[in-house]
Every structure is written in structure tokens, then in C-alpha cells.
Design a protein that fits this description.
Blueprint lengths: L12 E6 L20 E2 L3 E2 L1 H11 L3 E6 L4 H10 L10 E6 L13 H6 L2 H4 L6 E6 L3 E2 L3 H11 L3 E9 L7 E5 L5 E6 L13 E12 H12 L8 H12 L2 E5 L15 E2 L4 H10 L27 E3 L1 E2 L2 E2 L1 E3 L2 E2 L4 E3 L2 E3 L2 E2 L4 E2 L4 E7 L4 E2 L4 E7 L4 E2 L4 E2 L3 H7 L1 E2 L5 E3 L1 H7 L4
Parallel strand pairs: 1-4, 1-6, 4-5, 8-12, 14-19, 17-20, 18-21, 19-22, 20-23, 21-23, 22-24, 23-25, 24-26, 25-27, 25-29
Antiparallel strand pairs: 2-3, 6-11, 7-13, 8-11, 9-10, 9-11, 15-16, 28-29
Pathway: Glycan biosynthesis; glycogen biosynthesis
Function: Involved in the biosynthesis of ADP-glucose, a building block required for the elongation reactions to produce glycogen. Catalyzes the reaction between ATP and alpha-D-glucose 1-phosphate (G1P) to produce pyrophosphate and ADP-Glc.
Family: Belongs to the bacterial/plant glucose-1-phosphate adenylyltransferase family.
Length: about 425
């Protein structure tokens, strides 16, 4: 791993998080909220990982661009991320699409989401811009990426994952030379180029870019003047720099933050029902691949003041218990049994109910005798007494959103349609 300088470059950087996307593959989970605002890990939201990486890396100027159904996200940011202080040369700006450039123009693409806020960014005077996606789960020290950017003299440095070559067909892929300089950027190639010296793997874009601020602003203004541009980093800005400047790949393994318990670099796009369920349930493993207990790299979030979780009743068949599960504060497990499940704040699981492989979002109430297997239950849902999910695929598919892997997403409108007494 590269050694840090005495003077961190992060002090002169601004992190700009692109958090306007819907995340339509998460289906009903994003009907009321943007993907970055979706709950994750028992207490946090997805966006908290990118923001925590910035704070833990030493970056103290942060902007978050929002657009799609942003209220839940903005409320979370206001509650959980309001500790940065201007008198300490810190800043935190929430930047909804507000038609700053034109009275009819929302953010047209990821690059436009930065361009429309140039007048807000420039007065802060950051020397570097770290452009981040707000919808991935990972721990990364951006200081190390900033150092590579400066040392290489690159116009743009792009964060990349090393993935098996034929698994890279859904990514933007970097074709690099032996020095990791990018020769070509190919969006979702059918036959991804391999890494020199390791041809079975390819370098896939993480949607993380580092620029010198002055250069980025020049490129964004040039792109805004191009009537044929789609105003997108991946489709327009990066290919232009690859062709006309110097673009360098930064390998995630070089800056991934790992505790003693994390064996491999961890990065997840939790953009589908199955991937979202799996990443949450993975946290219930005895030694999970992602260590959220690492105090040296905390995941900051809005944390409600809640009483402890409570487990009551000790009768046969009616025992409040949890095995290989994570249970947040203000949960009451009243004669219910949990196995490999993750419960967010304020869940009530009532007597004789049984949960296995359940991801339960905040404020859910689970009725007596319910049996729920391999489910995601949205915020505030009231599960009727005796409901059974995860035992009959045909019934589940008629009632709920059932994924390819057999995970059932349950929302309150779906419950309401059942016509069952609550």
C-alpha cells in the first residue's frame, strides 16, 4: 500500500456525491425514495458509505446532488450529516435539481449535475474534486487515490474494480496499458479487454473520478456547449479525456479499507432485490465479508435515540430469540424467533411468529403466527396475523414482488390488496 504524505491532499479536496438516481431495479423499494436513501445494514442508508469514506479520508467539503424523490434522502442528510461547520473550513451542501442554469432544465446527466452547481463549488476553492456515486457499499480511503492522481499527472483518475473478465460486461471497462494508463473506455462490452499480465480479469469502473478542479470545470463547460452530448461522465466526459488527455486507472485494492477480519476487498452494487437482500443477510455471518464493527473506519449515519432491543417470553413455541441475527434499537421481539435476519429500528415481532432470512426495515409490525422466509419488508408495513411467505412460490408470486432467486419484497399496498384482517 502507498505511504501517505505528511500533508493530506484530502484537506484540499471536495467530495461531490451523485445521489439523484432512482434505482428502478430495486422495484417498490424506490417508489418513495431514491436508491441512495434505501436503508442498509440495520441502521444506515446506502449513501452513508460514500459519505463516511469521504469523512474518514479527511475530506471536509462535501456536496450531494439529488433529484429523484429526494425528500427522504434530504431529510436523512439534514439529520445525520449536519455536523460540518463553516468556521472550521468545512461545508456540506445538499444540491437538489433546482433549475439553476435554465428555468426548464433539471439535471440531464451525471456531468450536468456537477456543471449546474459550478457557481456553488468554485467559491470554496477546492484544488481537487472527488466525484462519487452515492449508491454502492464499500470502504475506501480516497486520500490514496488523490495521491496517485497527483503523482501520475493524470487529467482524471478513475476508481476501478478487478473483476473476472466476462463478469465485466455490465460495467464501463478500462482498457489499460502496462502503467494503468487508460487506452480506451468501453461501456458494457460484449468481450471486455483483459488486464495486461492478468488477462482473465478486467478493470471495471466504480463511478469514482478524481480531477483537478480547474480542469474539471473547463471540461464541463466544453461539454455543456456541445449540443450532441448526453451530459454524462461515463458516456461523454471520460471518453473525451481518454482520447484527448491522460486518464489513469486506480485499483480499488490499493485503497480499500479492511479490518483484520476482512479477507478480500469488499464492494457491492446493491441495485437489485437479490443483491440487496444478499448483502444485508451476509452481515449475519459469524465473520462477514464486510466489517461494520471496525471502529477505525466508522460508518456515520443519523442515529435515532432509542431504547435497547428487548426479548421477552420464554415458553415453548413462544420464546423471544435471535440466532445469527442483527437487531437494532427499539425492537421488541415478543415471543418471536429470528434466524439469519436483520431488523432495523423499531420493529415489533409478536408471539409465535418466525423469521428466517428476513430483512425488516424500520417500524414494521409482524403479527402473531406469521412465518416469513427470505423476505424484504418495507418501512412501516403491518404484517397480518398468520401470514406465510416463502413456502409456496406460486402464491408468493401472485401476492408480492418475487425475485428470480425467490426473495419476496413486501410493501403495505401489497398487504392491503390481500384483504386480510390486521
Amino acid at each position: 500500500m502507498m505511504e501517505k504524505r505528511p500533508q493530506p491532499l484530502a484537506r484540499d479536496a471536495m467530495a461531490y456525491v451523485l445521489a439523484g438516481g432512482r434505482g428502478s431495479r430495486l422495484k417498490e423499494l424506490t417508489d418513495r425514495r431514491a436508491k441512495p436513501a434505501v436503508y442498509f445494514g440495520g441502521k444506515a442508508r446506502i449513501i452513508d458509505f460514500a459519505l463516511s469514506n469521504a469523512i474518514n479520508s479527511g475530506i471536509r467539503r462535501i456536496g450531494v446532488a439529488t433529484q429523484y424523490k429526494a425528500h427522504s434522502l434530504i431529510r436523512h442528510l439534514q439529520r445525520g450529516w449536519n455536523f460540518l461547520r463553516p468556521e472550521r473550513n468545512e461545508s456540506f451542501d445538499v444540491l437538489p435539481a433546482s433549475q439553476r442554469v435554465s428555468e426548464t432544465q433539471w439535471y440531464e446527466g451525471t456531468a450536468d449535475a456537477v456543471y449546474q452547481n459550478i457557481d456553488i463549488i468554485e467559491p470554496y476553492g477546492p484544488e481537487y474534486m472527488v466525484i462519487l456515486a452515492g449508491d454502492h457499499i464499500y470502504k475506501m480511503d480516497y486520500e490514496l487515490m488523490l495521491q496517485q492522481h497527483v503523482d501520475s499527472g493524470a487529467d482524471v483518475t478513475i476508481g476501478c474494480l478487478e473483476v473476472p473478465r466476462m463478469e465485466a460486461t455490465g460495467f464501463g471497462v478500462m482498457h489499460v496499458d502496462g502503467k494503468d494508463e487508460i487506452i480506451a473506455f468501453i461501456e458494457k462490452p460484449a468481450d471486455p479487454p483483459g488486464i495486461p499480465g492478468n488477462e482473465d480479469f478486467a478493470l471495471a469502473s466504480m463511478g469514482i473520478y478524481v480531477f483537478h478542479t480547474k480542469f474539471l470545470m473547463e471540461i464541463l463547460r466544453r461539454d455543456a456547449a456541445d449540443p450532441h452530448s448526453s451530459r454524462d461522465f461515463g458516456k461523454d466526459i471520460i471518453p473525451y479525456i481518454v482520447s484527448n488527455g491522460k486518464a489513469v486507472a486506480h485499483r480499488f485494492a490499493h485503497s480499500c479499507v479492511r479490518s483484520n477480519f476482512e479477507r478480500t476487498p469488499y464492494w457491492r452494487d446493491v441495485g437489485t432485490i437479490d443483491a440487496y437482500w444478499q448483502a444485508n443477510i451476509d452481515l449475519t455471518d459469524i465473520v462477514p465479508e464486510l466489517d461494520i464493527y471496525d471502529k477505525s473506519w466508522p460508518i456515520w449515519t443519523y442515529s435515532e435515540i432509542t431504547p435497547p432491543a428487548k426479548f421477552v417470553h420464554d415458553d415453548e413455541g413462544r420464546r423471544g430469540s435471535a440466532i445469527s441475527s442483527l437487531v437494532a434499537g427499539d425492537c421488541i421481539i415478543s415471543g418471536s424467533s429470528l434466524y439469519k435476519s436483520l431488523l432495523f429500528t423499531g420493529v415489533r415481532a409478536n408471539s409465535y411468529s418466525r423469521l428466517e432470512g428476513a430483512v425488516i426495515l424500520p417500524k414494521v409490525q409482524i403479527g402473531r403466527h406469521a412465518r416469513l422466509t427470505n423476505v424484504i419488508i418495507d418501512h412501516g408495513v403491518v404484517i397480518p396475523e398468520g401470514l406465510v411467505v416463502g413456502e409456496d412460490p406460486e402464491i408468493d408470486a401472485r401476492r408480492f414482488r418475487r425475485s428470480e432467486e425467490g426473495i419476496c419484497l413486501i410493501t403495505q399496498p401489497m398487504i392491503d390488496k390481500l384483504g386480510m384482517a390486521v
